[in-house]
Structures are given as structure tokens and as C-alpha cells.
Design goal:
Blueprint (H helix, E strand, L loop, with lengths): L1 H15 L4 H12 L7 H19 L3 H5 L2 H24 L15 H13 L2 H15 L5 H34 L5 H24 L2
Helix pairs in contact: 1-7, 1-8, 2-6, 2-8, 2-9, 3-6, 3-7, 3-8, 5-6, 5-9
Length: 207
């Protein structure tokens, strides 16, 4: 069990470290909230989604889901449309730290919806979680080892997203205490649009 847990922890850490759409969103929410706890809806949603995906991977459902063409295509199209729309909405956001917190921070419902979309509708993230982690879990035959592996992978997500929210909040306060957050929103919007383009590429090239 210990070997499986260490294996899962190291593997999940290596996969989650690169700053993609999911990580960038958590960082942004940490930065634009007066308190880092304001980003908790995004943090918890992303963590729960990762935990669900890891569980499905360990149960062996990943290969079936990813190789159903129409299901992968529909999820991808929904993700692309959502990213384009949310990018447009984010680009329009205005506000600064000198104004009321609600002028810059996303409300909980919006955080939850977007965090779920970038966690569940992104084929690249699904490949990392379901294929790589799911494939690695096949090395273990006992349920005790599988549970230890999955638990370690999930713990990485929870720790990492909390770390990102707190780190983003500290960096935001230090660097942007008295400046407008328009640039942050614009950068986030561009990230969403680029992610939509990349998502389309992944769908087109995924075999």
C-alpha cells in the first residue's frame, strides 16, 4: 500500500504541476479575491472533479469513455463553446482592489460552473487523469493498493489547488494592491480562448 501511495503521489504531482487552464483559473481567483477563502468554491470544485476522475480511472472506466467518439466529441464541443463564452464574459469584467470585492471576484456559482467545465470538458486533462493515472493503476491488483494509489492522487489535487489559491492571493496583494484588475481579467480571457483553440486541436488529433 505504501509503495502504491508514493507512486500515485509522485505521478499525480508531475501531471498537475504545469500551469494549464485549471491551474490558471485557481490562481486568478486567488488573486482577485480580498481573502483567499473567496476562491474556495473553485478550489473545492476542481478538487472534487479530480477525485471523481481519478476514481473512475482506477475503476477502469477511463478507456471506455475516452474511446467513444461521439461522447468525446460532444464533451469537447461543449467545452469549446463554454470557454469561448466565459472568455468573452471575463474580458468584459471591470474592477480594482480599491472597489468593492464583488466588482472583481466571481460569485460562487460562476466559480463552480467554470471550474467544473475546465476539469471535466478538457480532453487533455482527461487523458492525464484517466489514461495515464488509470493505466498506472493497472499495475496493482489488490483493492487496498488501488485505493491507496487513488487516494494519494486525489490528495495531491486538494493540496495543490489550496496552495495555488493562497499563492495567487499573496502574489495578487503584493503586486497589484492599488492597480486595476482589468489586465488580470484580460489575460484570463486570452487563456480561455487559447484553451478553446487547443481543445479543438486535441479533439481533432486524438486517436
Amino acid at each position: 500500500m505504501l509503495i502504491a501511495a508514493v507512486h500515485g503521489f509522485i505521478l499525480a504531482l508531475g501531471l498537475i504541476l504545469p500551469i494549464g487552464m485549471q491551474n490558471g483559473f485557481i490562481l486568478t481567483q486567488g488573486a482577485v479575491n480580498r481573502r483567499w477563502t473567496g476562491a474556495l468554491p473553485a478550489v473545492i470544485t476542481a478538487s472534487v472533479c479530480d477525485t471523481v476522475l481519478v476514481s473512475l480511472a482506477v475503476l477502469g472506466l477511463s478507456a471506455v469513455a475516452l474511446h467513444i467518439f461521439w461522447l468525446r466529441y460532444i464533451l469537447g464541443m461543449i467545452g469549446i463553446g463554454f470557454l469561448l463564452y466565459m472568455g468573452w464574459k471575463t474580458w468584459q469584467d471591470k474592477g480594482s482592489m480599491d472597489q468593492d470585492e464583488t466588482s472583481t471576484a466571481w460569485p460562487p456559482k460562476r466559480q463552480v460552473t467554470f471550474a467544473a467545465s475546465v476539469s471535466l470538458f478538457n480532453p487533455h486533462a482527461l487523458i492525464d487523469t484517466l489514461v495515464i493515472l488509470g493505466g498506472s493503476a493497472l499495475a496493482y491488483t489488490s483493492w487496498a493498493d488501488k485505493i491507496a494509489f487513488a487516494s494519494a492522487c486525489s490528495v495531491v489535487s486538494w493540496i495543490w489547488f489550496f496552495f495555488l489559491a493562497i499563492g495567487g492571493h499573496i502574489a495578487g496583494k503584493a503586486a497589484l494592491r492599488s492597480t486595476s484588475f482589468n489586465k488580470i481579467h484580460q489575460v484570463a480571457a486570452v487563456m480561455m480562448w487559447l484553451s478553446a483553440i487547443y481543445l479543438a486541436y486535441i479533439i481533432y488529433t486524438f486517436q
